[in-house]
Amino acid sequence: MLSRFPAVTRCLSVAALCVAGPVSALELPLPPPGEDIVGQVQVIKAKYEDTFADLGTTYDLGYSEMVAANPGVDAWLPGAGTDIVLPTRFILPPGPREGIVINLAEYRLYYFPKGRNVVYTFPLGIGREGWGSPVAHTTITAKTPNPTWTPPASIKAEHASEGDPLPNVVPAGPDNPLGPFKFTLGTPGYLIHGSNMKFGIGTRTSHGCFRMFNNNVLEMASMVPVGTSVRIINEAYKFGVSGGKVFLEAHTPLDDKGNPSVVDKHTAVINALLKREDLANNLRVNWDQVRDVVAAEDGLPTEIAVPGTPSLVSNAPLYPEQ
């Protein structure tokens, strides 16, 4: 069994590690047919002034995924020379690779532009406790640059109760919580938009809408047409194939309201695998490795199986107390 700590030792081969400079966006070539993994993990040396929030802005990563990939590292003062794992390798979300796919459990959006063999992926802020983001299949119905914001009555009441009353309309500009651009969704009341608070990206911080870094939402604005499909899913466990091997990527499960969920993880992992009918019937699974991946919830794709004698059902639970 591989040690689950540190994350780099457990999850990454030497070939998967590379030191790279910042990128303006995560535009990644799609893998060949039958494969599911894009990108490569990067490892950098922290500078004295670095924080996870600042590194996330530079590398298109959300706060929660930076914390998950770097257990034990201080998010606000990593320390000069500390190795920082940048989790820029992803198993593509299950289902059709078209339009926009949002996976709540990983606080991340994927955009598959029509007629191009690439995928763009960006971190998101999602709904916080009491304001969960929906699981739905909808479309982009409108695009609005420099939006004004008309706070709904529920949000006005919340702010008023906290001694922070809101105006009836917040004009466009640096203080507007919608940022420089918004996409209206066919699901009433929900938007994809920028933000005047970069520290909320990659966390449960919104009133149900999907927040993006402003440079990311502006990049999307130039690419995504009205009518684009938007599929919102909540998949904590993603399976994928690369180089003839099967990988698992695990995130902290969220419930239907977007809150951390207490679930039977053993059952949840097997159910996620069963959805992949192309994989489930002919695997030799390393169940010890599966347990480590699920326990870590670090969002790093990790090899857990190779084609061979079927081993779908494990006799032992993922955790002894189950």
UniProtKB/TrEMBL annotation:
Transmembrane segments: none annotated. Pfam families: YkuD. InterPro entries: LD-transpeptidase, LD_TPept_cat_dom, Transpep_catalytic_dom. GO terms for molecular function: glycosyltransferase activity; peptidoglycan L,D-transpeptidase activity. Residues 1-25 form the signal peptide. CDD domains: YkuD_like. Residues 142-170 are annotated as: Disordered. GO terms for biological process: cell wall organization; peptidoglycan-protein cross-linking; regulation of cell shape. One of its GO terms (cellular component) is extracellular region. Pathway: Cell wall biogenesis; peptidoglycan biosynthesis. Keywords: Cell shape, Cell wall biogenesis/degradation, Glycosyltransferase, Hydrolase, Peptidoglycan synthesis, Signal, Transferase. Residues 98-233 form the L,D-TPase catalytic domain. The active site is at 193 (proton donor/acceptor), 209 (nucleophile). PROSITE patterns: LD_TPASE (PS52029). Belongs to the YkuD family. This is ErfK/YbiS/YcfS/YnhG family protein. It comes from Pseudomonas batumici.
